[in-house]
Here is the input.
Amino acid sequence: MAIRLTADSTCDLGVYGKERGVEIMPLTVILGEESFRDGVDITPQDIFGYYDKTKQLPKTAAPSIGDYEEFFSRFTENGEEVIHFNISAKSSSAHAYAAEAAKSFGGKVRVIDSKALSSGQGLLVMKASDLLREGKGAEEIEEEINALRGKVNTSFIPDRLDYLYKGGRCSRMQMYGANLLKIHPLIEMEDGQLVADKKYRGSMEKCVQSYVRDLAAKYPAYDDTRCFVTHSTADPELVEFAKKQVAEIFSFKEILETVAGSVITGHCGRNTLGVLFIAR
Here is the structure.
C-alpha cells in the first residue's frame, strides 16, 4: 500500500515539502474578525501589517476533528496509508484532534506528535521521506521517527521581544530591558514546549555567531544529512551570515533555508532566526 506523508502547516517546509510530495493541513490564523488558512491565503507580511496597525497579535486555531477526517479521507480513498505530523501537542490542540480523527480510518492513518514546531517538525517529515525512499513501511517509519523526536534541536533567537511579550511569554520589564540592552534570549524546545535558556547580547550577527558555536559545542554528534536555517522574514544579510557560520562550523550535506509561516511568525515576530537539525 502506498504511503502519503502529511503535516500541519507549522512544519514550515515550503518548497522542500512540495518536492517530497508532502500534503499540508493548514492551521487557522485569525486577524480581528477574519480567518485565514496558514500558507494559503495569508502571509507573514499580513501579520506584520496587522500588528503595526493594531498592536495585537493574531490568534490561531487548530483544524477540527471533522477537518482532519476530511483531509485524511482524500488519501485513504485512493488506497494510501497516511503518516501525519502535528505541531507539538503542548503547543496546540491539533495533535489531539488529528489523533481522534485517525480512529475513523481503521489503522490506515498514523498521527505523530512531533514535539516540535517550525522546521524542527519539518526535519522529522524530511527524515520520514528519506525512510520512505529507502523502502521502509509505515509502522517502521513511525517507530524510527518517534525514537528521533527527542534528538531534534528546535531553537531560535528573536531580534526583539515585542511579540513574545504580547503572547505572554515574557514580562514588560524583560521586553523593555532586552530591547534597550540588545539582549536576545535563546528560545528552545524541551519536551515539546518552548523555554528560554541563555541570553546573548549585542547585534544579531554577533549573537548568531555565538549561538551557532554554542550549538556545535552542545551537539558534537549530529545527523549530517541536512540542517535548516529558518527565519521569520529576517534581513537577507543576517540569513546569509548564519548560513556561512553553519557551513564553517558544521559538516551538513545540505543547509536549507526556509521562511516561517504565519502561525510561527505570529508568535515570534520579524527577524527571528533559528538553526535546526537532528542530533545523535
